[in-house]
Design a protein that fits this description.
mainly beta, 16 strands, globular
Length: about 210
């Protein structure tokens, strides 16, 4: 009887841990063509956590699915509880469809000029390596090791426009670099260890920049 109780307790603990770790994302994979055709992603893409209030820069968002998960709605909110919606900010995306890339680039003058294909990922095992990735983690995650809230990325050697400059991101030996051209070009190391998004303002979470 004691053994049965221990087995049941372990089973409940496993179920509880699986429930806590389960996470769903709305993925926006970038492509150059308007129909999102092609074998290799190219441009700026995103991954946004679903059914959680999260921050992009100083703005709060939430992603929600409809009843059959055939489309997703992204709304912006005034507060970190996502209780007060910002009027006329709603965006709806149908799963497996192609759209002009929205601008969810965090704290940056970069404007995406590609298209994105919409998909869902559940409990992803890893994040692919890109030319550049800026990831936001929940408040309190000082090591940036929990499930990400959100990330935007640029595929390797993607040409971007930032204000009056042209920017290229690329990854070498697991380190991300950026090249600015205006018109002369200069390259620099672009990785950033886990830091608080805004000093003294924990609701905005922590951020890191990697490949």
């Amino acid at each position: 009887m004691k053994k049965l109780f221990i087995l049941l307790s372990l089973f409940v603990l496993i179920l509880k841990n699986d429930f806590v770790k389960s996470v769903t994302y709305l993925d926006m994979t970038p492509y150059e063509k308007h129909d999102c055709s092609g074998n290799e992603p190219a441009g700026i893409g995103y991954s946004l956590i679903v059914n959680e209030c999260f921050a992009i820069d100083r703005q709060f968002f939430m992603v929600e699915f409809n009843h059959d998960h055939s489309n997703a709605t992204v709304n912006q909110y005034h507060d970190n509880k996502c209780s007060k919606i910002v009027n006329e900010t709603e965006k709806t995306f149908e799963i497996n469809e192609c759209y002009q890339a929205p601008n969810y680039v965090w704290n940056n003058g970069v404007q995406p000029n590609n298209f994105v294909k919409i998909s869902i990922s559940i409990n992803p095992n890893y994040i692919p390596q890109y030319g550049f990735r800026q990831t936001t983690f929940p408040p309190g995650d000082i090591n940036c090791q929990s499930n990400p809230w959100f990330y935007w990325y640029a595929t390797n050697e993607t040409k971007l426009h930032q204000d009056d400059d042209t920017v290229y991101f690329y990854c070498i030996d697991n380190q991300t670099y950026e090249t600015f051209c205006d018109p002369d070009c200069e390259s620099s190391y672009a990785s950033l260890s886990c830091i608080q998004s805004y000093e003294g303002e924990d609701p905005f979470g922590h951020v890191e920049e990697t490949c």
